[in-house]
Amino acid sequence: MQPLILASSSPRRKELLQFLQIPFESMNSNVDESIDENMCPDAAVKELASRKAEAIAAKFQDSWVIGSDTVVVLDGEILGKPVSRADGKRMLEMLSGRTHEVYTGVVILFGKHRRVFAEKTEVTFWELPEAEIERYLDSGEPFDKAGGYGIQGYGSLLVKQIKGDYFSVVGLPVSRLARELKAMQEELG
Ligand SMILES: Cc1cn([C@H]2C[C@H](O)[C@@H](COP(=O)(O)OP(=O)(O)OP(=O)(O)O)O2)c(=O)[nH]c1=O
User: Where does this one sit in the cell (predicted)?
Assistant: First the structure.
């Protein structure tokens, strides 16, 4: 297999991709992540994952490139990463006691060939008293994460239930990715 590049700066995605036991490098794509607010989440994460993968693929033509993007969605509103503590608080208050969706889009590129998919996971939060939200914000964990929480960290205590792929919430649906990558390699012979 030609070299594999993960178009990401996320340490979590890097850790998850290691489960595939294929050597790879990771590179920050530095793309503009702004999107049209009216875009449906499924299309938005696919579009952003494509942008990330394409930025790297333009420089490394003979490599496989994987791009990924994660957003949290509540009542149709896409929540990205909080821009401030107040924004993080607003997001956690919105998510409290409710079920939201986490969408992760993945794009695999090899030359002109492309495979795109998105996973949706439903996550239900406990009712969160203000003191718990403040304590969680104090941990510093919310700020580089979509929706302002990390299910894999202290954020685990906020979550009552999930339906779908846990790893997709963390940022990379590894088991589906392994299957899609294998199918694409088989197609290309
Ligand atoms: C909901 C949730 C999100 N996240 C993370 C996954 C993503 O890394 C991040 C969403 O931002 P993304 O823009 O998808 O990714 P990123 O900026 O971290 O990395 P890159 O664009 O370089 O690939 O939120 C968690 O780690 N845990 C969670 O529970």
Answer: Cytoplasm
